[in-house]
Amino acid sequence: MAAYQYLNWGDASHYDRTRDLPCVLCGGPTPLRSHASEPVHKVCAEDRNAGNPDQPRRYTLPARDKPQYDVGTWRFHNDGPNTAAPRRTAVTELRPPGPQDGPLDLFAA
User: Fold this and answer.
1) Three-state secondary structure of 59-71
2) Is residue 45 within 8 Å of residue 7, measured between CB atoms?
3) Residue 43 lies in a domain
4) Which of 52, 39, 37 lies closest to 5 in space, CA to CA?
5) Is-contact 26 40, C-beta < 8 A?
6) Whole-angstrom Cα distance, residue 54 to residue 51?
């Protein structure tokens, strides 16, 4: 039996304080949102990850002192600090992104 992995969705972008929408997996109302803004209960997403090991997965970046590990499916994955997802930074000035910002990589490999 595979180990059950709990998602860490601590970022405020996973919570819609204005309204509940039906979960895409169970249909029950939820204020939670996935990385793609889909309404989904965290438990439903965890169950989906655990029950679908053949789905495309995300992994942490390999490092000398830490092994690479699975952080969930591409659809429902972890917010942990070691994922390959881009980090969000505070906006310090209002301007459109340009070539000086580099490529906009929304989904890290």
Assistant:
1) EECCCCCCCCCEE
2) yes
3) yes
4) 52
5) no
6) 9
> Tokens standing for 1?
């039996």
Contacts of 48 (CB under 8 A, 6+ apart): 25, 73, 75, 76
- Tell me whether residue 95 is in a domain: no
Range of the domain at 27: 1-83
- Residue 109: inside a domain: no
Confidence class for position 17, pLDDT limits 50, 70, 90:
very high
pLDDT per position as a tens digit, 40-78: 999 999 999 889 888 888 888 877 887 877 888 888 888
Q: Which two tokens stand for residue 71?
A: 């952080």
Judged by DSSP in three states, 50 sits in helix
Which structure tokens are listed for 5?
Answer: 């992995």
